[in-house]
Structures are given as structure tokens and as C-alpha cells.
Amino acid sequence: NFPKFSHFYLKSPKIFPKFSSFLPNFRPKIVNFYFFSIFAFATCGGFEGSVTFRVTCEGRENHTVSAHFGYPFRLHQAVFQPSLTHLCNHTWPKDVHLIGDFSSAARFFVAVGVASFLYSLGALGGYLGYLHLYRCAGSRLPLMDLVFSGLVAALWLVASSAWAQALGHVRAAAAAPLPHCPSPTAVCAHGGTTPMGGLGASVAFGFLNLVLWAGGSWFVYKETPLHRPAPPPDSAPSPM
């Protein structure tokens, strides 16, 4: 079967409202899921920040060192620059890093966001081009759609929870004192950290996607035989 596209909706300048009126039951998936998935993984994957310290060596020399970090938040690879091995008369024997590796939670969160975005995009094309197959008698597509929608909602729950916990550790690591600061030979004062409001927004978008996918599953459920009553059987012909 070939897709049956309606050119009327493609010609309209208000394309999404037309989709919504054409497919009222799938409105949340077409509009909300598509955009909020992008917001979730973009705010997490696009973050770049730094931690800065002011180092005073024996009350004389003042230095500023910074460690830059970002997605996927392997903080243990973020080295303070300029190298602390050259400061305070070689007080530090080796380079100093931030502490922690939170890449697994961050990458999982972004992967779920990208996957849900692609699924929403594919569902949009499927609803628009193959709705006649989706709603035909005996079709298993609604049930498959319901299973995948429920699976994506569960993944958003796990990914958002894991990333929220990891973000708390990232904030704690960024606010921690400079590792191995040899007081009183050197005084290390926290100079500032890049605001992480965008990362907090990514967690909020993650849980918002959870709500949207869980709620949107209801609209998919209404298209399945589990919700629609089976048609009554044809009455048998009366005996002659």
C-alpha cells in the first residue's frame, strides 16, 4: 500500500493546526513531543561551562586557574589551566582535575531525547501518509504504537531521574574546593562557576516529556481494539 498524502494540509500556512484538526487524537504527539524532545536533549548536550579558582602563593603571587567542562560531563578529564604544576614553586606535583564521571547518565538522557524525537518524526509521517492503514479493521499498528509510546514514557522516567541525580553531583563537584590545595603554602579561593540553569531546564523538560508521553499514550490507546468495542457479530440467517 502506498501512502495517501493530503496536499491540502501541505499547502496551508498553518500546517500544525491543520494536522491537529486532521488527526485530533494524535495532536500531543505531533506538536508537543516533537519540540519538547528537542528542548530536552539540546539543553543538556549543548552545555559548556567552567570552574574558576584564585590561587595565592604564600601571600605574594595571585593566579587564576579554570577548568572547562561540558557534555558528556566527564569531569575527571577537565584539567585546570594554566597547569598548577607551574604555580607556587611547583607545590602541585601533577595536574589537578575536577572529580567525577557522569557521562553515562548524560548520554543516556540525550539518547532518549534523540530517539523520542525521531520516533515522533516518523509517527508524524506515518499518521499523515498511512492513516488509512492505521485505522483499518484488524490493524495491529495502534497496538504497536501503544507499546512503543509506553516504552518511550518509561525511558523518559528512567533517563530523567538518572540525569537529575547526576546533575546534583555535577553541581556539587563544581562547588567543591580546589583539590589538593596545600594550605597554608597556597590559598585557593573559589572564583565562580558557570550558571547551570540550562541543565536544570533539561531535567524539567525530561519530566515534562514523561508527562506528555504518558498522557499521549491515552490518545493512542483510544485507537486500539482495547478501547474500541468489538463490532457485534453478524446475525445468522433464519432457517427456512
UniProtKB/TrEMBL annotation:
Compartments, as annotated in UniProt: Membrane
A Pfam short name: MARVEL
GO cellular component: synaptic vesicle membrane
UniProt key word Oxidoreductase: no
Transmembrane intervals: 108-131, 143-164, 199-221
Protein name listed in UniProt: MARVEL domain-containing protein
UniProt keyword list: Glycoprotein, Membrane, Transmembrane, Transmembrane helix
Organism domain of life: Eukaryota
Subcellular location, principal: membrane
